[in-house]
Specification:
Elements: E1 6-12, H1 20-30, E2 34-45, E3 50-55, H2 58-71, E4 76-79, H3 85-97, E5 103-105, H4 120-130, E6 136-137, H5 141-148, H6 159-168, E7 173-176, E8 186-191, E9 197-202, H7 212-225, H8 230-246, H9 262-276
Helix pairs in contact: 1-7, 2-3, 3-4, 5-6, 7-8
Length: 277
């Protein structure tokens, strides 16, 4: 039997377990991978928004990650919120030292409520230092436009143009999600390094969700770590995320929390059916 793939996660903690490190750990665990964690920051937040972010000291972040990398075989690195310019420098150094490990980056910039979590200088550093090592970038449409408008904030940029610019910045492949667009279905677009594009339309769900982007990026990371092609992993990751959102829980007074173990409920339902028939 093949060993369980290890995924090293760089992200900040979310006490609600809706997003951040806890969301990543839940997702990759649900999909049969083992999470290894390098915490980039501590937050004070609830299901309504983020109130405080305290970045982890860069030396401590580097020590966390290097100790894990020295001890364990890492199949893939998944990155969420990096929390500070210093931590972006640490991550860039580590990625350059391990050039053969695939990287999935969810470029988190704001909470679902709109709380700013990155500065323009942090975004510029990500583009310059991290993007050239990224196997798959997974911004939503607002993040994608923001990332490529640093030099021209007034220009309205299409999703296709944003993807073109992100690929030109060094990302190997880009998946731009469309939940923020005014469309009947949610349309996500995959732009591959060879010029191929794929569009995926998903039924729009009726609520707001805390951690949908974290769930999607981590699900794709898990499928890639298990050996699926990138296109297969992107499709399966979207399917997993849609079902996690469709089964989401109202754990607080704000956004709903994705249920990343929805398949356990399916087993319960099937058991009930067997019992009652």
């Amino acid at each position: 039997m093949d060993p369980t793939p290890n995924i090293l996660i760089f992200s900040a903690s979310d006490p609600t377990c809706g997003a951040g490190m806890q969301a990543d750990i839940q997702t990759v665990s649900s999909l049969g991978c083992h999470p290894l964690s390098a915490l980039t920051g501590l937050t004070v937040q609830d299901t309504k928004g983020v109130y405080h972010l305290n970045p982890v000291d860069e030396k401590l972040l580097e020590a966390q990650a290097q100790t894990i990398l020295d001890d364990s075989k890492v199949e893939l690195i998944k990155c969420g919120m990096l929390s500070s310019e210093e931590n972006i420098h640490v991550l860039a150094k580590l990625l350059n030292e391990y050039p053969n490990i695939p990287v999935v980056l969810d470029p988190i910039m704001a909470s679902g409520r709109g709380d700013e979590l990155t500065s323009e200088s942090m975004r510029q550093l990500m583009i310059e230092l991290i993007f050239p090592r990224v196997t798959l970038l997974t911004p939503n449409s607002m993040e994608a436009r923001q990332l490529v408008k640093l030099d021209d904030l007034k220009k309205d940029i299409s999703i296709d143009e944003a993807a073109k610019r992100l690929l030109a910045s060094g990302c190997e492949n880009v998946l731009i999600t469309g939940a923020d667009e005014a469309t009947d279905d949610v349309v996500n677009r995959l732009y591959l390094s060879d010029g191929e594009t794929e569009s995926y339309a998903w039924k729009r769900l009726p609520h707001d969700y805390h951690g949908s982007g974290c769930t999607l990026a981590s699900a794709i990371a898990a499928y890639v770590a298990q050996g699926l092609s990138l296109k297969q992993a992107v499709e399966e990751g979207q399917d997993f995320t849609w079902h996690a959102l469709d089964s989401a829980m109202q754990t607080g007074r704000g956004q709903r929390t994705p249920n990343r173990f929805f398949w356990m409920n399916d087993f319960d339902d099937s058991d009930d059916d067997l019992t009652h028939h």
